[in-house]
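so my prof wants the structure for this chain in the tokens format not the other one, which i didnt know existed until like an hour ago. anyway here's the sequence
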Amino acid sequence: MSPEDLVELTSAIEFLFEDTVNVDGVLEQAKLKEILCTHYGMTDVTNKYQEDIATILEVACWDGIFTSFFYNITKRKLFLHIDLYEARESCCGPEYKELIDKWIPKEKQKEMVSIFTA
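here's what i got, hopefully its the right format
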């Protein structure tokens, strides 16, 4: 999945939360992580790379939504941090429901709402 797709996906999940649970609320990151891991096959590697994150060498680029960090001079691994607020704002507009339908199949929407409210 490309970073741009991840921005759309996380925004669609946030929009579904706002439409079904709380228009003024903020989706907990733990619930977003649960949805991404459970429904989209992603893996939480935060703990695995915690030490590496502390050795970040440089900020490779920043464009408001994405910040890329290089670390470990020999491995040149890359972390990508996505600002969820900026990501959501970049996807706002009258077509936000189309974004929900693009990324969240109708049969999964009800299941996600139950995660939001658990």
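also thought this was worth mentioning. The chain has six helices and three strands.
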